[in-house]
# Entry
Amino acid sequence: MNSKKEKIVIYIDGSNFYFSVKKTFNCKIDIEKFCKKLAEGYDLIRINYYIAPVGEANPKMYTEQQRFFEKLKKIDKLKIIFGRLEKHKQDGKNFYVEKATDVNISRDLIFDAIDDIYDQAFLISNDGDFSGVVSSITKKFDKKIIYVAIGNKKSISYHLKKVASKTIGIGKRFIEDIKK
# Structure
């Protein structure tokens, strides 16, 4: 009997993850515990955490984020992949738009599938824009993409749920053990 565990890589859309957890559960969670719990029974190859760093223009936010990055760097098998924030102006007000995160996640999902890094990819994002790449990977390769949905029915992606190999809904019971 073959008891070889399936290889998984966890892909976390950092900003989407943070705001989904905050909005749904109104708490901060331990990312290391979250990933370990999610990966129980699997061979965890890597955790990719995608985020756009804030600039030094906001010293408080910058310092908090740098502390957060230092904590992430201590997590075994976790790799931080940086996007960028682009400044825009509308009606005289400045705002920032996260760029490159979706492209980076999509690129890594595809190349990791090609390189046979994972048997299953756990995608943590409620962004329906990933439905195209998820559908393509599951059709082209012998890979499963697991959509890890955080939030209520309004916030989870119908499009991702439709094309993913499986959807795992993260609820209060899962979160209770990993709150900070």
The helical segments are 14-25, 31-38, 59-73, 101-114, 131-140, 158-163, 172-176. Residues 7-176 form a domain with the Rossmann fold fold (CATH 3.40.50.1010). The mean pLDDT is 93. Strands lie at 7-13, 43-51, 78-82, 84-90, 93-99, 120-124, 144-150, 166-170.
